[in-house]
Input
Amino acid sequence: MFRSEIKPVLSASAKRLANAPHHFTVVAEAADYLVVDKPPFLLVHPTKPGQARTLWGELRALLAYELANGGQVSLVNRLDRETSGLVLVAKTAQAARQFGIAMQGQRIAKEYLAIVWGWPVWERQVVDLPLARQGAHRASAIYLKQAVHPKGATAITEFGVEHRFRRHTTAGEKFALVRAIPRTGRTHQIRVHLAAVGHPIVGDKIYGPDEQLYLRFIETGWTPELQQQLLLARHALHSAKLAIDGIGEWTSGLPPDLARFAGH
Output
């Protein structure tokens, strides 16, 4: 099969990371929901039976009593494996339905922090560029890769620069911490939009300097050569804020790896 026909798999080093102990934090809990802070490299949902540890599996262990008494574990907002930060978890079927309706009605606000290459010339910018799976319109070596395309689905993201900083690296010295507020929920939306405006996320293997770095990572795992080009072992994207009308608001600061890179 061609790579464009299959979904990406974990490299050998990524499998080790995925199966390593990951300690998520419970940020808030109520009778029918949880808000947790997910670390990077922890899969949210299983992609193959018995493949790796997942947030869903860890939550099922944590909520074993609730599950035995008719509860459930439903992840309302899903994060990529490498993305860290806040995840909303419904503990009952009714809560899952209500949160699903709220998400569709855009009553659940989400904000992300991203470290990007370069210094944006703007302080605030709204990116309105439609997105589609790249392989649906042209040859693509990566099945899930998204691209800006006029026939794609509407995708809108608001960006604001939090601060600009310098860091001497093997791949540039100008970087910025950017806050991203997605107004739609497309696959890889923030990552694609930042790349489209010339400021890809540091560590992004697919939308960063060269997609071949992702294919190399799948074959070899993390290497010193990849480190020199990508700088971080994961894309520097963090789910920093969740807010639900009439229920609550939760925030999460930069995790240690991103805080160190940004000099915080």
Summary: Confidence is low (pLDDT under 50) at residues 1-19. The helical segments are 12-19, 55-62, 64-68, 93-104, 189-196, 212-220, 224-230, 256-262.
